[in-house]
Structures are given as C-alpha cells and as structure tokens.
Specification:
Strand order of the largest sheet: 2-5-7-8
Number of domains: 1
Distance between the termini: 70 Å
CATH architecture: Up-down Bundle
Order of helices and strands: HEHHEEEEHHEHHHEEHH
Largest sheet: 4 strands, antiparallel
Helix content: 55-70%
CATH topology: Outer membrane efflux proteins (OEP)
Length: 432
C-alpha cells in the first residue's frame, strides 16, 4: 500500500511538471511585443548587430596601426670560449668573448596619408553597417506584422466558417428528417451533405494554414518552434484603415530611406577611394627610439652598444611606371559610376513611391468593397437558410449561398492582405 502511494505521488509530480513546462512555453504576445521580441531574438537581427561590432573593431584596428608600437626583446650570445686576438708577437692581446645578453626596448611609429584615409573609410563602413542593422530591424518588424495579421485573418475566417458549417449541418439534419418522413427528396438532403463536407474541408485547410503560420511566426520571432502562441492584439486594432489612408498623403523624404542612405555612403566610400589612390604619391614618415642594456656573464668585455638611440626616416615614391596614375584614374571612374547609380536610384525611388501610393489606394478601395461583399454574403446565406427551414428556398439556393460566402471570405482575406502588404511597402519606403 505504501509503495502504491509513492507511485501515485511520483506520477502526480511528473504530471504537474509536464503541465508547468507546457504552461511556461506558452507565449501570449501583442503585435508590438512580438515585434520587440523578434528584434531581440531574431537570428538576422543578431547577425546585423554583430556586423556593426565587427565594423567597429575593424575601425579601431586601422586606427591602432597609426599609434606608436612598443616591443621588448632579450638577446643572449655565447661564443663558447672564443678569444679575440689583436696584434702579434709581444703586442699580441687576447680579449675573451664572454657570454653576454642584451635587453632592448624599441618604440616606433609610422604614418602616411593612406593610413589616415583608411581610417576615414572605416568610419563610413561603420555607418553603413549601422544603416543595414536599422534596415534589418525594419524588415524584421514588417515581416512579423505581416504574418501576425495573416494569422489573425485566418483565425477570423475559421470562426466564420465554423458558424456557417454549424448552420448548414442543422439544415442538413432537418432536410434528412424531412426525407425520412417522406416530405422531401433524398437528392436535396444529399446536396446539403456534400456542401457540408465541402465547408468542413475548407475549415480543415484553414486550420492547417493557421498552424503553419504559427510556426512561421515563431521562426521569425527567434523563439522555440515548439512553443504555444497566443495573439493578444485584435484584428480591429491591427488593421487601422484610417491610418493607412492617411499614409497615401504623406510626403516622401528620400533621405530617410535606408536604401538611399546606403547609396549615399557608398558614394562617399568611392570618393575616399580616389583620395586613397592619391595617397600613393604621399611620403611615409617613420620614427623610433631604442633603449639597450648589455650585460656580460663574466669579465666585462668591449661594449659598443649605445644605451639610447633615436632615428627617423622619410620615404617618397618617385617612379612606378604609371601604376599610381592609372590607380587614380580607375578610382575616379568608379566614383562617377557610384554617383550615377545614386542619381538613378533616386529617380527610381520616386517612381516607386508614386506606384506604392497607387497600390495602397487601390487596396483600400478593394478592401471596402470586399468587406461589404462579405457582410452581404453572410446576410444572404442566413436569409436563404432561414427560408429553406420553412420550405421557401431550394437546396440549390442554399448550396449557391454557401459557395458565395466561401468565395467572399477568400476575397476578403486577399483584400486585407493586399492592404497590409501595400501599407508595409509604403511605410518601409518612407521609413515611417
């Protein structure tokens, strides 16, 4: 009895632990929370942040090459009893070459124009990495919002379809009861059953789509794909038609666009490449200081090593058979290409802005039409099913009405997604 009681307690503890683990893995997020979570955990965002850190490290690496460097060393020499002989005969002098060691410290610095320009180029590279990080954050937020809205729309659609299936099932059951008592034909009941099966299939497909979208959203969030996910933001809160309509009247400040900012930085980088090419003609200046201390491990020998030494050097390039001139010319041509690309992209972005405004306006008009069409189809379906219940409508009319409502729901979903996609595209372009 005691053993069974222990087993019961162990089983209960395991169940509680499993329930707690399941509860902990459930994520309830609003749209804003989901976007913030993705920015913090999404792999693409983490990589973009790492690229900024790498660019900053490269900048300091280049800058440190312009700073003085200090190195220390110790040199040991042992000539294995060799003695230096000077003179001959009575004047023959032997000087023992005892083991010795030399400790030295050397500080040196070298500077040229290429190093200075290179540091400036690393600043531009760092700025480009940060712009790319901001652009990745924008894209991550947009992707999360797109999938989040898609999930809300599919959930809303599934609820509408469930209601339609329940209503149609009641009609099918009533029709079959009428057939059983001889008040209706079997073909009418069969038509309704087929339509019920069709609606159920649509519901099942919708449910599967919802599960797939949940997995996609968890992947974009950078969360465990096995986690449970609940959305706390409603469809009405996400789909702000007035805000979307106001977006069509917003002025386009092209300097806020991330793609344009990257092109500007690329142009600056190309211009610095021209300066870097010219720096091949500039001199290189270097200087050093050395301290040395020589110690003999025996009798004091001849010490010709100066303890302190200072030196400087300047080198000027003279002739390289036109290589430097060709390098400058090539850099100038590359810079002109960058300018042309930036100007062409500027015109392209303005054309894109006009097109996206048109797309959003068209999507809003279509949404209004499809929303009213869905409401009308729902009313027609309810009206026809009510008439059929009292024998004032045929099964064909019920089937047609149920088919129409599925079509209207599909069109409504597409209209909603068109609005969301058009709004996101315009917001990204404007960097709103």
């Amino acid at each position: 009895m005691n053993v069974n009681y222990r087993r019961l307690l162990l089983t209960a503890a395991c169940l509680c632990a499993a329930f707690a683990a399941t509860a902990q893995s459930t994520m309830r997020l609003s749209l804003e929370e989901a976007q913030r979570y993705a920015v913090e955990h999404n792999a693409a965002m983490q990589n973009a942040s790492l690229e900024v850190k790498k660019a900053e490290a490269d900048k300091w690496k280049t800058l440190s090459s312009m700073l003085p460097s200090v190195k220390a060393g110790f040199d040991y020499q042992n000539m294995l009893g060799y003695e230096m002989k000077m003179g001959s005969g009575a004047m023959n002098i032997k000087i023992p070459m005892d083991p010795n060691g030399t400790f030295s410290v050397t500080a040196s610095v070298a500077l040229n124009g290429a190093m200075v320009v290179g540091t400036m180029m690393k600043d531009i590279a760092l700025e480009m990495a940060d712009i790319t990080r901001q652009q990745t954050e924008q894209q991550t937020r947009s992707s999360v919002r797109n999938v989040y809205v898609s999930l809300l729309v599919m959930q809303q659609t599934a609820e509408l379809l469930d209601s339609s299936v329940a209503n149609l099932e009641r009609l099918a059951a009533t029709s079959q009861s009428a057939v059983d008592v001889g008040a209706a034909e079997q073909v009418d009941a069969d038509k309704l059953m087929v339509q019920v099966a069709s609606l159920r299939s649509t519901v099942n497909a919708t449910r599967r789509s919802i599960q797939a979208l949940r997995g996609t959203l968890l992947l974009q969030l950078g969360a465990d794909v096995e986690s449970q996910l609940e959305l706390s933001t409603t469809m009405d809160e996400v789909l702000d038609i007035d805000q979307a309509a106001a977006l069509t009247g917003r002025e386009f400040d092209i300097t806020r666009n991330y793609n344009y900012q990257l092109l500007e930085q690329s142009e600056k980088l190309a211009k610095k490449q021209v300066s870097l090419a010219w720096m091949d003609f500039s001199p290189t200046l270097s200087a050093y200081y050395q301290y040395s201390k020589k110690v003999y491990f025996g009798e004091e020998g001849m010490n010709m090593t100066p303890p302190n030494m200072v030196g400087a050097n300047i080198s000027v390039p003279l002739l390289t058979t036109g290589t430097r001139v060709a390098g400058v010319k090539s850099a100038k041509l590359a810079y002109q290409e960058s300018v042309n690309s930036r100007r062409q992209a500027e015109d392209g972005l303005r054309v894109q802005y006009a097109q996206l405004r048109y797309d959003l306006a068209s999507a809003l008009e279509s949404y209004d039409i499809q929303k009213r069409s869905l409401e009308l189809s729902q009313r027609v379906f309810n009206n026809v099913t009510e008439k059929y219940r009292y024998g004032h409508a045929s099964s064909l009319e019920v089937t047609t009405a149920s088919t129409d409502i599925i079509t209207a729901q599909s069109n409504y979903i597409q209209a909603v997604m068109n609005v969301v996609n058009a709004q996101l595209s315009l917001e990204n372009l404007l960097n709103n």
